[in-house]
Design goal:
Blueprint (H helix, E strand, L loop, with lengths): L2 H19 L3 H15 L4 H13 L3 H14 L6 H17 L3 H14 L3 H15 L7 H16 L29 H11 L5
Helix pairs in contact: 1-2, 1-3, 2-3, 3-4, 3-5, 4-5, 5-6, 6-7, 7-8
Length: 199
């Protein structure tokens, strides 16, 4: 692609990306179609953006099809970060549709391709979380996932928290969770929190 064509291509891609960010999803999809016509070929970045548009349109099967196609078509590319993003998106879409075992495999592939150690750790964490929804998962499978997580964690420099020297006369108990809002977990633990014996 000539430099002038590349500049025009990037301008068109940026336009599609901005439309997606503004949640003008139909227009973003039209811009992506125009981009493909302009370039005469599909690109990994544009196909990944197409998957994001499908997700926001709640067209999960179309998203999965688009992701599977791009992961096959661009499997040999050097853009490992974008491929890792594709596998991660596929894992999330599969998890939402209840395909937990396939989702775990996708998250693990994302983790292996991901060049950023912290993001790779996140992908293994996603795999472990998703594996908990598999009815017949064996303990050995879970241990393998935990081993991969621990191995990835060892590659990251994590500073431990300094020990706290509390001087309270009474033990203080705190509950912290993202699920303590309008969430089923919050409704289940409400009696525990509201009828707690403060004496």
């Amino acid at each position: 692609m000539l430099k002038s064509q590349q500049t025009a291509y990037l301008g068109k891609f940026d336009r599609a990306y901005q439309l997606w960010q503004q949640r003008r999803l139909s227009e973003a999809m039209e811009a992506l179609e125009s981009l493909e016509t302009f370039s005469g070929a599909k690109t990994l970045q544009a196909e990944l953006l197409r998957a994001y548009v499908f997700r926001d349109q709640r067209k999960y099967l179309s998203e999965i099809e688009a992701l599977q196609r791009l992961l096959q078509d661009f499997a040999d590319t050097d853009a490992k970060k974008l491929l890792a993003d594709g596998w991660s998106l596929l894992g999330e879409a599969l998890r939402m549709l209840g395909e937990s075992r396939l989702a775990v495999q996708a998250f693990c592939k994302a983790a292996k391709l991901e060049p950023d150690n912290r993001q790779s750790l996140t992908e293994y964490s996603n795999a472990i979380f998703t594996a908990n929804a598999i009815d017949d998962i064996k303990a050995e499978e879970m241990q393998r996932l935990y081993a991969k997580y621990r191995e990835q964690l060892s590659l990251i420099e994590v500073k431990p928290y300094l020990p706290m020297n509390w001087q309270h006369k009474k033990i203080r108990v705190g509950y912290m969770s993202a699920d303590l809002r309008n969430h089923p977990v919050a409704h289940f633990v409400r009696p525990l929190l509201t009828q707690y014996d403060h004496k």
